[in-house]
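Retro notes (design track)

What went well: tokenization of the new backbones is finally stable.
What didn't: we kept losing track of which sequence belonged to which structure.
Fix going forward: every design gets posted as structure first, then sequence, in one message. First example under the new rule, 193 residues:
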């Protein structure tokens, strides 16, 4: 039954997750943490962090880890957990695959049609909203700490966030360089403390 729920949930996320993987994060969090309770918010935050570091799209990586974790948290064996990760990954990719097969057939013919162009103009703000929602989802106490409870974590988290934002936006540094610098600073700081 869990596998059917995983498939249905991630098929639905894949179908309505406009804006790519970051746009899917708020949908995934709403389904797996809030609605189904397959994992805690802390586990979900860890999954998002690991999904960002591993190669591949973050939405598919998250589905893979969620499928595995949901089955393990349900008391399944490691083999069943691997099957859960495959189920969730396949389900989140299937709608895109089907839609692309259908759209690719007609897109080249109608790409400059006024109604098609109008549809893309309508979808752009929705995609920006979904990505902003994913960013706000990650700005929680599990990632930033709480001022008054863990002042060091809060100050370091906000400082690294501001550094990364300014370095990327103003100085146009490479995101990879920013990740390495922030990871190294955080690792050294928390290794000392």
């Amino acid at each position: 039954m869990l596998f059917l729920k995983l498939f249905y949930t991630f098929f639905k996320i894949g179908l309505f997750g406009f804006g790519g993987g970051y746009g899917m994060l708020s949908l995934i969090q709403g389904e797996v943490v809030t609605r189904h309770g397959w994992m805690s918010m802390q586990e979900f935050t860890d999954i998002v962090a690991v999904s960002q570091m591993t190669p591949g799209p973050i939405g598919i990586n998250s589905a893979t880890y969620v499928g595995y974790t949901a089955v393990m948290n349900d008391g399944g064996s490691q083999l069943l957990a691997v099957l859960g990760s495959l189920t969730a990954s396949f389900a989140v990719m299937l709608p895109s695959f089907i839609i692309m097969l259908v759209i690719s057939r007609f897109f080249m013919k109608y790409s400059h049609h006024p109604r098609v162009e109008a549809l893309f103009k309508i979808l752009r703000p929705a995609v920006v909203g979904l990505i902003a929602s994913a960013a706000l989802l990650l700005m929680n106490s599990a990632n930033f700490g709480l001022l008054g409870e863990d002042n060091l974590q809060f100050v370091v988290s906000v400082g690294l966030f501001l550094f990364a934002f300014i370095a990327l936006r103003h100085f146009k540094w490479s995101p990879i360089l920013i990740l390495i610098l922030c990871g190294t600073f955080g690792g050294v700081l928390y290794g000392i403390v």
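Added context from the reviewer: Residues 2-117 form one domain.
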